[in-house]
Design brief:
With about 230 residues, the protein is an alpha/beta fold. It has 2 domains: about 150 residues, Lumazine/riboflavin synthase (Rossmann fold, 3-Layer(aba) Sandwich); about 50 residues, no CATH class. The chain is about 45% helix and about 15% strand. The strands form 2 sheets. A 4-stranded parallel sheet has the order 2-1-3-4, with helices on both faces. Strands 5-6 form a two-stranded antiparallel ribbon. α2 packs parallel to α3. About 5% of the residues have low confidence.
């Protein structure tokens, strides 16, 4: 029996983590960001591997998340925001759009996009879900169990580790097959064979590196023939 379980035991070393934060309700979202940063530092993520991007509000989170999801060096995206219920149903439409959009981006890009948006009825509820405590000794910020930002950072680290462990079955065929089809098909003997998809057991990062290497070799080989 195979069991795969992401562990939050060591910092990722192959890329960066992007945190997208909504400026609206900044009193709350700043506390979420502090909690996320504290959790990443607790797990020894280097400062240079953390990227923080501020957007006007929660509605803009999916757009920027999708932008950075195309970055091969970005291992995970943490989206932080606070949507508090008002006198109308505006909050429901925002929450539905943001949650569904972030889920769609994660599925399409095969990259962890963490939903760290607080959806509350009152400001008091939002404050309770973004709790932090400041140490009087060293003035450092430590996330409390109720800090959604800290929880989101921990989820991101676990997902990064999990993706490194499990095979990637979402890629329909190998880089060599893709290039062969794009450059006219056929095998090394010049004969056209039926295109048989291959499901390589490569994690996304390894597949991307192999694809880049194959592209360079193919372009170089094609240029030498000319």
């Amino acid at each position: 029996m195979q069991v795969f379980e992401g562990q939050v035991c060591q910092p990722p070393t192959d890329g960066n983590i992007t945190i997208v934060v909504a400026r609206f309700n900044e009193t709350i979202t700043k506390r979420l960001l502090d909690g996320a940063l504290a959790k990443l530092r607790e797990h020894r993520v280097h400062e240079d591997d953390i990227r923080v991007v501020w957007v006007p509000g929660a509605y803009e989170l999916p757009f920027i998340a999708d932008h950075f999801a195309h970055d091969d060096d970005c291992m995970a995206i943490i989206c932080l925001g606070a949507v508090i219920k008002g006198e109308t149903s505006h909050d429901q439409h925002i929450n539905r759009y943001v949650s569904m959009s972030l889920g769609e981006i994660a599925s399409r890009q095969s990259k962890p996009v963490i939903f760290g948006v607080i959806t509350c009825d009152t400001v008091e509820q939002a404050m309770a879900r973004s709790g932090v405590e400041v140490s009087k000794k060293d003035k450092s910020i430590h996330p409390l169990p109720g800090n959604k930002g800290a929880e989101s950072a921990e989820a991101a680290l676990a997902m990064i580790d999990l993706l490194e462990e499990i095979p990637d079955y979402r890629v329909p065929f190998s880089p060599q097959d893709i290039l062969s089809q794009l450059l006219g098909g056929g095998d090394e003997d010049g004969e056209d064979d039926d295109f048989m998809p291959v499901f390589p057991p490569f994690p996304p990062k390894k597949l991307a590196k192999n694809t880049k290497k194959t592209v360079k070799k193919t372009v170089k080989k094609s240029s030498s023939k000319k």
